[in-house]
Specification:
Elements lengths: L5 E4 L5 H10 L1 H4 L6 E2 L6 H7 L2 H10 L5 E10 L7 E4 L3 E4 L9 E6 L2 E5 L2 H4 L2 E7 L10 E3 L11 H6 L6 E3 L6 E4 L5 E3 L8 E9 L3 E3 L2 E2 L4
Antiparallel strand pairs: 1-11, 2-3, 3-13, 4-12, 5-7, 6-7, 8-11, 8-13, 9-10, 9-12, 14-15
Length: 220
């Protein structure tokens, strides 16, 4: 994980657990944006899954033994709801309140939650678990990653465009599997080729909600 920036885990959830989550998320999926639904930690079934010992064990392996879930997002791609994601890093974090710090930039508010783009030291304390509620295949826009790219810190748009992506890997994950990844790992995805759903519940963990005095993650 530390060298590559990601790791795959097979058969973490059963088919029935995946079906149950999709049922629990059915109502909020009606209000989805083009890509999916954000801020799902208030859904009881999502919060329960985030605290499941199977997921906590995976997250703790990357966070020196402590893991606190703070944000959950459903990404939903199919032939009818299709999009292309260019190479990028995940640098925006939800925060409880605004503070003065030169290394936090791009402040904004998304659905009532305050966000800022975080520095590398904060992002190094975070891991995301992508729970695959459908199999992720070559036909439905599986995630592509550049192994080891998280070790280069926060990259500018120009640096990302110049970054060597020849060693990019396709992350094919069976239903119920989990992809753990660092937020600074360069990743992208293609449009779905077939009308096959690719629904991923993306839960993020930090080693603590308080990253520094006065810098606290919001639960969203």
């Amino acid at each position: 994980m530390e060298k590559a920036g990601y790791c795959l885990y097979d058969s973490v959830l059963s088919d029935s657990e995946c079906d149950g989550l999709l049922t629990a998320l059915a109502e909020c999926r009606k209000q989805r944006s083009r890509a999916g639904v954000r801020h799902l930690m208030s859904i009881l079934e999502v919060a329960a899954l985030a605290s499941d010992t199977r997921l906590l064990q995976i997250a703790r392996q990357s966070l020196d033994g402590n893991a606190v879930a703070y944000r959950a997002t459903l990404f939903e791609k199919s032939g009818r709801a299709n999009w292309l994601i260019y190479w990028h890093q995940d640098t925006a974090l939800p925060l409880q309140s605004r503070f003065m710090a030169d290394d936090w930039q791009g402040w904004s508010t998304k659905q009532g939650i305050l966000y800022a783009h975080a520095p590398a030291w904060a992002l190094s304390r975070i891991v995301a678990l992508r729970i695959h509620l459908d199999a992720s295949t070559n036909d439905n826009g599986a995630l592509r990653v550049v192994p080891g790219s998280h070790r280069f810190g926060v990259l500018s748009d120009e640096e990302i465009s110049r970054f060597d992506k020849q060693q990019a890997a396709e992350c094919f994950v069976a239903r119920g599997g989990v992809l753990a990844m660092r937020p600074l790992l360069l990743h992208a995805s293609s449009k779905a080729r077939l009308d096959i759903p690719r629904r991923v519940l993306h839960i993020e963990y930090a080693d603590a909600l308080e990253l520094k005095p006065s810098i606290c993650l919001a639960v969203a």
